[in-house]
Amino acid sequence: MKKLGILLGILFLQNVWAQEEKCGLKKSEFNIYKVNAEDIKCLAKSTDKKNSIFFTFARWCEPCLYHLPNFKKIEKYYNVDSYVLLIDDEGSKMTQLAVDYVQKDYPDAKIVILKDKEKKNGRKYKDFLKEITPGQFEVIRDMSKYIVLNQSGEVQLVTNWKDNKEYPEWKDDTSTIKRIVLPLLEKK
Question: What is the pTM of this model?
Answer without folding.
Answer: 0.86
